[in-house]
Amino acid sequence: MTASPPDLLPVHEDAHLLVLDKPAGLLCVPGRGEDKQDCLSARAQRQWPDALIVHRLDMGTSGLVVMARGLEMQRALSAAFADREVHKRYEAVVDGVMPQHDDWSLIDAPLMADWPRRPLQKIDPAGKPSLTRWRALSSVSPPGGPAATHVLLEPLTGRSHQLRVHLLSIGHPILGDALYGDAALQARAPRLLLHARELGFVHPATREPLHFERAAGFATEWLSDL
């Protein structure tokens, strides 16, 4: 018999919502097939039967996820995401050296499904407007090896694979990306080095401003090994 996964330790828990720190490699919702039924929502519902998904992270992405407790709260939180009332910040380690400066830079590139290669996405003028802000924190250029940059990211829209495709489009794919990276890029990290670091929003029930932050351990650890 397969052992049950350990209980989730919430970053935040109240009568209306949960904030959880999803590990890399775990789906947010069930996939197709018996081997893809273990996921964040299923684990949460074992502990909080009223827990409902509001937004998702890719399987390879770690970090903060908010879940609603009940349909009314799910509708309210979903509306906050749709209306861009939720602050989201990610961190990643990407290929190459990105310039460091105090101001944020903007990637403005519309995205749409790459239908022959689904679930991949692509940049296309006919796609949906997609905006990502980025700011480089530090870069390393080891002797004889490829350079890498630790970067903060703020998606101003919420398209599928937005951060991965936008960074690829400016020549800085995320290390460990098994969907958009070649074999050499994948070999440079044991996982996708992308983490949902911050979430901020107004609590729909209490109207209290909430802000949560969980830094990724991989950036410091990975860059120090170079």
UniProtKB/TrEMBL annotation:
GO biological process entries: enzyme-directed rRNA pseudouridine synthesis; tRNA processing
Molecular-function annotations in GO: 23S rRNA pseudouridine(746) synthase activity; RNA binding; tRNA pseudouridine(32) synthase activity
EC number: 5.4.99.28, 5.4.99.29
Name the UniProt record assigns to this protein: Dual-specificity RNA pseudouridine synthase RluA
Function of the molecule: Dual specificity enzyme that catalyzes the synthesis of pseudouridine from uracil-746 in 23S ribosomal RNA and from uracil-32 in the anticodon stem and loop of transfer RNAs.
Keyword check for Isomerase: yes
Record domain Pseudouridine synthase RsuA/RluA-like: where: 16-168
Keyword Isomerase: yes
Catalytic activity: uridine(746) in 23S rRNA = pseudouridine(746) in 23S rRNA; uridine(32) in tRNA = pseudouridine(32) in tRNA
Keywords: Isomerase, rRNA processing, tRNA processing
Family: Belongs to the pseudouridine synthase RluA family.
